[in-house]
Predict the 3D structure of the following.
Amino acid sequence: MKKFTKILAFAATAALAGVLVAGCASEPAKDAGTDATDNSQKTEQTAPEGDAPAQANKLIVGYDNSYPPYGFIGDDGNPTGLDLDLAAAVCEKLGWEFEADAINWDAKDALIGSGEINCIWNGFTMEGRENDYTFSEPYMLNEQVIVVKKGSGIDDLGGLVGKTVVTQVDSAALDVLEGDQADLAATFSALDQVSDYNTAFMSLESGQVDAVACDLSIAAYQIAAKPDAYVQLPTALSSEHYAVGFKKGDTEMAQQVTQALKELYADGTVQKLCEKYADYGVTVDNWVLFE
């Protein structure tokens, strides 16, 4: 998949409050001019008492709510997904508050810049974005791949000549097809963009397009849901990694999240969460962040 901050500082002194502003800020009023206001669905988790630090942080996670298995709306109408569960577990370990904020993916840069969210945690590819965000260490291996309909006669990347390929707007797959794989994309009859991958796969199923370029995790989820409908081409477009993206310069929070993720792997939490989403194509074998 190509994927601000509320000052919660209980400062004892004005000097200490000034130190905390850079890493942990207060949530501003929603901008009525952004689509994120209308699309937002939230969940909050309050830091546990007792072990919580005196200076509590709040992690406001911007995510795409139509991006299973990393972030989506479950059958109960509540936000769910591997990355949201990981974020909640990190907050519990660090004694932070947690808020999941469904955003318009196109608006993510504006939202993290204004402080309405303070991280992007949603199957978010770090390669090619290092100059735009401060990232945690990468935690999950990913690839950009092509999915076609079973029986389409398209067996490899060469079979895409003259075909219509669709991907998500501002996605890692789009970056690859406009960058390292631009020569391949030049052979397509069209490279279309849609707002989300659910729409992309509906277009593939209906025959409106011939192929979908997407993250490996998205392909695994769609194929697991409809194994008789889709097949993944054997050659990947690129290999990359998922990481948590923070506003440029927010190094302290990125480091704290990285350390918490390492501890969650060590205590078995990561394995359990990957097993929870195994039916969506998630496997702990792709986890790359260890002690």
Remarks:
- Residues 1-55 have pLDDT under 50 and may be disordered.
- The longest helix spans residues 251-266.
